[in-house]
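Saturday, quiet lab. Running sequence design on the structure tokens for the scaffold JK sent over.
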């Protein structure tokens, strides 16, 4: 049997569960309920511009916070011994073994007005915080759920940097900060770019987090699409148009990030 035949199940799977749904979305986006061609759905999306802006803004903020937290964690972890690394990786991945919905519900119990956080603040005699049903709660939920996808790619790149490069940089007179700035950061950039894509893409399209932690007060693109398909205002054509535009924007974003990553890899000689 030729090796190419082993790819047949994968091709069939991709055709049924990836290509076919995308084609259906494209068909609905450019047709009316009667099946006629139209571009009306795209012109109607101008009234949803605040939803697009909010979704990309919150996804961007969540990604920046994930980098700010994830990069130091990944760097410190890569400098530890093998036993500590294995233990910390397990602890980082442990929440991912639990159901995504349950993790989000747990944050509801922490952030709600009578939740654990406000009870703790009341115990200390501090003023309580109104976090639940706000964009802040949505950002907290996204950072918590997607942070491992930022830490692991960065860690996997930094830990593979040849230790002799650190020694060579030190021998050439570079101090610890210089080694980090001129060696670690440039060589870890591919991991950072991978982490950005793995955090930003699910963050911009999430709907469970915004529904539970936003309480329906913080509508994002995922909520808008779900509303068009499952809500009382059933309009799969408009929902498909929104999904298609979001898909194109995300693909362009990933393309730009990949091109930037290729340029950086050539610059550092990877």
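Result came back. Writing it out in full:
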């Amino acid at each position: 049997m030729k090796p190419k035949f082993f790819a047949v199940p994968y091709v069939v799977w991709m055709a049924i569960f990836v290509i076919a749904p995308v084609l259906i979305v494209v068909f609905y986006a450019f047709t009316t309920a009667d099946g006629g061609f139209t571009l009306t759905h795209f012109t109607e999306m101008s009234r949803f511009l605040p939803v697009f802006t909010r979704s990309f803004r919150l996804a961007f903020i969540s990604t920046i916070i994930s980098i700010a937290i994830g990069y130091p964690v990944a760097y410190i972890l890569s400098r530890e011994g093998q036993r500590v690394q294995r233990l910390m990786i397990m602890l980082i991945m442990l929440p991912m073994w639990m159901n995504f919905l349950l993790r989000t519900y747990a944050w509801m119990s922490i952030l709600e007005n009578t939740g654990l956080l406000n009870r703790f603040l009341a115990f200390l005699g501090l003023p309580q915080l109104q976090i639940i049903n706000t964009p802040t709660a949505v950002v907290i939920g996204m950072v918590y759920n997607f942070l491992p996808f930022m830490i692991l790619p960065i860690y996997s790149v930094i830990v593979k940097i040849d230790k002799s490069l650190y020694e060579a940089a030190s021998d050439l007179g570079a101090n610890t900060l210089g080694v980090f700035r001129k060696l670690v950061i440039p060589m870890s950039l591919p991991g950072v770019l991978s982490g950005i894509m793995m955090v930003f893409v699910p963050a911009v399209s999430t709907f469970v987090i915004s529904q539970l932690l936003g309480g329906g007060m913080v509508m994002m693109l995922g909520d808008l699409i779900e509303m068009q398909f499952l809500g009382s205002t059933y309009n799969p054509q408009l929902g498909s148009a929104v999904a298609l535009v979001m898909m194109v924007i995300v693909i362009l974003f990933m393309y730009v990030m990949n091109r930037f990553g290729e340029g950086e890899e050539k610059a550092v000689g990877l």
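Notes for JK: The chain has a mean pLDDT of 89. The longest helix spans residues 236-268. Ask whether to fix the surface positions before the next round.
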